[in-house]
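Tip: read the tokens left to right.
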């Protein structure tokens, strides 16, 4: 049952982008099943899977509504993928870049895409879980793939998976790259820093309206260099920094008096940094800290 709970939490998290809410949904569904009076459930796994996924879809729809009033940029709640957190199968966590890309889909498209591409469900299984027709499942997946393909500016073959190609997976060189970034940013050498960045780099910060964070995304190498050097010299030059992985991306964790105050998540492309995501929201950082060993 523990393994099933981990799988269900991974389903809910990948749909929602919220780890804490995913855990709550799974817990609520288990409690409700145990509390049922008299009703016999022939296939508990199917019952729990259907309940968790549909509840996660409903929660995602509600999330989309209140996010219209979210102060600044909303980013998915990150989880550390080097840890052995008991609530998740680490291998089932989608990459951070893909999680961000999936925010462009509606909740049902996202669920169908994740079940098919990440968890290799057949359309017959998806149709049963979501209580839709097999043909509808195929159409939803096709629309989702087209939207993601348009966003990625490249066609995705019908028999190919975007799950690994759209998101960066950590390799043995990630630690060395983080060392290079830290050394460069501390040196103050703007030219060296510029050489690490992609021409079209995107920087996004999420402070949740509770701490300082850039309200608008920062695009382009020139602006990014000034921003990164400026905030490091002003806020982070004397902070304790640790390296790690977040959703299969290299990440830096910044601590102040032993408390996690910033998580900097890196997206790499062709040997340069193409995206940096600053997680400053203290609520999301508190949840992240529980998954860091």
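Filled-in amino acids:
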């Amino acid at each position: 049952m523990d393994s099933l709970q981990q799988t269900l939490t991974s389903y809910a998290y990948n749909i929602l982008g919220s780890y804490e809410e995913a855990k709550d949904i799974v817990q609520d569904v288990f409690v409700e099943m145990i509390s049922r009076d008299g009703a016999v459930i022939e296939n508990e796994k199917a019952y729990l899977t259907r309940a968790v996924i549909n509840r996660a879809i409903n929660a995602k729809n509600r999330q989309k509504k209140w996010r219209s009033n979210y102060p600044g940029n909303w980013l998915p709640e990150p989880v550390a993928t080097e840890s052995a957190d008991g609530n998740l199968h680490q291998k089932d966590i989608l990459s951070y870049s893909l999680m961000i890309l999936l925010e462009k889909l509606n909740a049902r498209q996202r669920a169908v895409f994740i079940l098919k591409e990440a968890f290799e469900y057949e359309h017959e299984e998806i149709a049963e879980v979501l209580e839709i027709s097999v043909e509808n499942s195929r159409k939803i997946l096709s629309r989702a793939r087209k939207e993601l393909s348009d966003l990625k500016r490249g066609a995705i073959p019908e028999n190919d998976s975007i799950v690994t190609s759209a998101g960066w997976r950590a390799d043995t060189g990630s630690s060395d790259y983080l060392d290079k970034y830290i050394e460069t940013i501390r040196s103050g050498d703007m030219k060296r820093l510029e050489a690490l960045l992609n021409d079209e780099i995107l920087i996004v910060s999420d402070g949740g309206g509770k701490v300082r964070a850039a309200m608008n995304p920062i695009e382009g190498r020139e602006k990014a260099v000034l921003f990164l050097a400026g905030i490091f010299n002003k806020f982070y030059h004397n902070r304790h920094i640790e390296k790690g992985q977040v959703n299969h991306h290299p990440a830096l964790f910044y601590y102040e008096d032993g408390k996690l105050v910033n998580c900097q998540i890196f997206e790499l492309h062709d040997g340069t940094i193409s995206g940096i995501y600053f997680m400053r929201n203290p609520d999301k950082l508190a949840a992240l800290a529980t998954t860091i060993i």
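Confidence is low (pLDDT under 50) at residues 153-162, 164-173. The beta strands are 197-206, 218-219, 240-246, 249-256, 259-269, 272-279.
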